[in-house]
Design a protein that fits this description.
There is one protein chain. The chain is α+β, with helices and mostly antiparallel strands. It is built from 12 helices and 18 strands. The longest helix is centred in the first third of the chain and has 16 residues.
Length: 438
């Protein structure tokens, strides 16, 4: 099977985070102006931003020690609150082989942290009236006109057999955004439909986004559309929809709509600039597996496929620019990307009473799912600290972010260690909130 950049394995997502029904920070304030417009995310005084210096130092000490002990190669952590940086440090090494030091401008494979960016681009199209959340997917990708659902039933020999039945309704754009399309991932979990994904070799050979959508459309759905949350290639297919609407390759759409205007100069599907390639972070040689036979991809080698579900690479600061725009209510430096109501809609729970968490419900207890984000419904319930209304996601390679509108804060954690991703997502959340003293 060809290794590609498509999301993450089951464990890659288990430590994701949530936000529900709470208003976004900045929903009642205008876009940044004056000094904020001139210098996005300036360095702030940690104490003035509500953090204890000695408690922030604990984080640095821990991450440095773990790198020196060979537990992780290295990491970059950025904490921003009230529009200013409270903490931005690089610890350990960028590449365990060369021993090059980790730097704040290191480029990481962000895998499924691609999903919120692609969803935001799609919602920009929605705001322009060129796409609608309730539209049928088949309007943009006709191959999905008559999807079939695979239903496992007992066979004559006692082994389950797969029976195909018509989908009871069309797959919608909302289904793609919230992972209720019935599309699945074949590289983790069990089930006859997942097995068909593996047998079909959906990631084999060379293909572009259009061909990939056709491949997925030929396979049965794992569930009836709109009934079950199942982590999937849905955002990859959403990326194809975005291409169809704008009549451009996905990478160009993202550059035009978000990456270039926000100054995310190091975020792209491929790191083809030779001057940037030494800045790409690498995992330990024995920690390159994402599970299910999927290995780390090499972003230095350009291809035709631009995975909307997991293909981007970028830096901590680049992603911080995207998150600050969200935290500021969809506007940045005088330019509006999304409306206040659209962001509130995206970061509300879209599961409702009709969607059942599937067997691999990665958000976990206390969380629902919005459009591109896990969304937190309660201050408690989850094993991880946070506020009702926070929203988050992470990537298979070890990257992770969350936005806490109540605290006017977001955090970006960048690391390339699939084995340690769950441990450090919980650790960073705990230590960041422990450092907050007001």
């Amino acid at each position: 099977m060809r290794v590609r950049r498509f999301g993450r394995s089951l464990l890659a997502v288990l430590a994701v985070g949530f936000a529900l029904h709470a208003p976004l920070s900045g929903l009642n304030r205008p876009a940044s102006t004056g000094a904020r417009a001139a210098e996005l995310l300036p360095q702030g005084d940690p104490a003035a931003l509500g953090f204890a210096a000695d408690r922030l130092a604990r984080i640095t000490t821990r991450l440095k020690a773990d790198s020196e002990a060979g537990i992780i190669p290295g990491a970059v952590l950025l904490i921003a609150r009230q529009g200013k940086i409270a903490y931005f440090e690089a610890m350990g090494v960028r590449d365990p082989q060369t021993k090059a030091a980790m730097t704040r401008d290191t480029i990481f494979r962000i895998y499924s942290m691609t999903k919120p960016i692609v969803t935001a681009a799609a919602m920009m199209q929605v705001e322009e009236g060129r796409l609608a959340v309730g539209d049928p997917l088949a309007r943009y990708v006709p191959a999905f006109t008559k999807p079939q659902v695979g239903v496992e039933k007992p066979g004559p020999d006692g082994k389950p057999v797969l029976e195909l039945v018509p989908a009871q309704r069309a797959i919608s754009i909302q289904d793609l955004m919230r992972h209720t399309s019935g599309i699945t991932y074949g590289f983790f979990g069990v089930g006859a439909v997942k097995a068909q994904y593996r047998e079909a070799g959906v990631m084999d050979g060379e293909f572009d986004n259009a061909e990939f959508a056709e491949r997925i459309a030929r396979l049965p759905l794992a569930y009836q559309p709109g009934t079950v949350w199942d982590y999937s290639h849905s955002t990859d297919i959403l990326g194809r929809v975005v291409e169809v609407v704008d009549k451009k390759p996905l990478g160009q759409v993202l550059k035009d709509r978000l990456l270039n205007p926000l100054g995310m100069k190091d975020t792209a599907f491929f790191v083809t600039d030779a001057a940037k390639q030494p800045r790409v972070a690498e995992p330990f040689p024995d920690d390159r597996s994402l599970g299910g036979g999927v290995e780390f991809f090499d972003p230095r080698k350009a291809g035709k496929y631009e995975s909307g579900g997991g293909g981007l690479t970028g830096t901590a600061m680049d992603y911080a620019r995207f998150l600050q725009m969200l935290l500021d209510g969809g506007a940045q430096n005088g330019k509006r990307y999304l409306s206040l109501k659209t962001l509130a809609y995206m970061t509300s729970d879209h599961m409702g009473m009709g969607v059942v968490p599937g067997p691999y419900f990665l958000p976990g207890p206390g969380y629902g799912f919005g459009l591109g984000f896990g969304v937190r419904k309660d201050g408690g319930v989850s094993a991880d600290p946070g506020s009702a209304g926070d929203y988050y996601w992470g990537g298979a390679g070890g990257t992770y972010f969350w936005v806490d509108p109540k605290e006017k804060m977001f955090v970006v954690f960048m690391m390339q260690s699939p084995k340690q991703r769950l441990t450090y997502r919980a650790l960073v959340r705990n230590m960041v909130y422990a450092a907050m003293v007001k």
